[in-house]
UniProtKB/TrEMBL annotation:
Gene designation per UniProt: pdxT
Complex formation: In the presence of PdxS, forms a dodecamer of heterodimers. Only shows activity in the heterodimer.
Record-listed E.C. numbers: 4.3.3.6, 3.5.1.2
SUPFAM superfamilies associated with the record: Class I glutamine amidotransferase-like
Organism placement in taxonomy: Bacteria, Bacillati, Bacillota, Bacilli, Bacillales
Organism from which the protein derives: Aureibacillus halotolerans
Protein name: Pyridoxal 5'-phosphate synthase subunit PdxT
Amino acid sequence: MDITIGVLGLQGAVREHVQAVEACGANALVIKSPSQLNEVDGLIMPGGESTAIRKLIDAYAFLEPLRAFAKEKPVFGTCAGLILLATHIRNSDMVHLGLLDMTVERNAFGRQRESFEETIHIKGIAEDFTAVFIRAPIIVSVGDDVDVLASIGDRIVAVQQGHLLATAFHPELAGDHRMTEHFIKLVSKQA
Ligand SMILES: NC(=O)CC[C@H](N)C(=O)O
């Protein structure tokens, strides 16, 4: 398979995503400058700290190139990456890429449960996925064109809108690559 997936390499769980992509048999490229986006078929925006990543996005003039990329090609945002994709952030005027039609709430599981694992069902992808949540956001509501892939109670934790995919959890940390594989399939269809 000659697919190359970029992993936005500004801050956060970059190396783990590279390993997950390679474990799925695709090539991975750590993206540190906007011009490298021309070399990849899809992009993963990792978890980390969305405000820190945004500062670096601005410092390296990444915002418009990322928006343009995501309009054409598949993007997978995990945790902080999900926040970067959202059209609305609850209790904030901040919008980053503003492309995936959803309202997210940052750090929504509260202090007691800052980090935990939960076995979840991901529609069409996995019956029993061990999802790792780290100071995770939740998706509070989604637009009509957004497909909800997984929830915990009434908290939405995975969605897809066309070629945009987002999870509140860290799929690269579970040692189970089905979510990454799903993204690579999405990329192959479009590449
Ligand atoms: N693991 C994560 O990516 C946490 C996200 C972080 N709490 C934020 O708001 O950006």
